Amino acid sequence: MAGTLRQAMVFLGLADDGYEQQPAPQKRRAEPEPAAEEDYEPADLPVDEEPAYEPAPARTSRRASRQQESPAPVLETVVEPEEDDAPPPAERTEHRAPVTPIKRAEAQSESDNELRRITTIHPRSYKDAKVIGESFRDNIPVIMNVTDMDVSEAKRLIDFSSGLTFALNGSIERVTEQVFLLTPANLEVLENEVADAGYEHEDVPVFNQR
User: Would the keyword Cytoplasm be found if you checked this record's keyword annotation (predicted)?
Assistant: First the structure.
């Protein structure tokens, strides 16, 4: 094809006649590609083993550890006492029987050298029976003067005192018509001790405790 084209060009005067026809270049044979190395194993190459991953220890702040160590706060409940609507003692008008403690002479018993006393009570109502009972319960002789009481309430108080002395193994004695001596068990009140309290025995009937 190339030779024919050359001849046509020479014929038309477009090319020199002295052109040496060069042989057409031969197609280069494709060289076979080297076979792929299928079973390549880099067995001889050193392999760097990666170190196993170890999680870093969790950091615990000092504040958190202190909070764990410190005990839970204890809630203290303060209960305030309720206000009492009752008036203060100074404003109360409740009457209490006047009590007059009187020191006694030395006891007759050799084993008891202490000074004992006699309590004189002037009750105004039957409510004063509590004062008489508390004094007698404390082993204190009581002189009870009922001159300021109503006759009916005085009788009730005398009956109460009689039962009180009987229950506690004491005794009740009439000093005057309206004055009574309550003596605890195992005690003896002398006449001069009653006189020191301002009372003298009169010729009155013996009080019947029954």
Answer: yes
Distance, CA of 134 to CA of 29 (rounded, Å): 143
**Cα–Cα distance for residue pair 147/124, rounded to 1 Å:** 9
Q: Which residue shows structure tokens 């029954």? A: 210
**pTM of structure:** 0.43
Range of the domain at 121: 95-196
Check whether 137 has a pLDDT greater than 70. Answer: yes
In a domain, 41, yes or no: no
What CATH number is attached to the domain comprising 185? 3.30.110.150
- Residue 16 in domain: no
Q: Phi-psi region for residue 139, left (φ > 0), alpha (ψ -120 to 50) or beta?
A: left
| Residues 86-135: tens digit of each pLDDT | 555 555 555 566 665 544 444 444 444 344 578 899 999 999 999 999 99
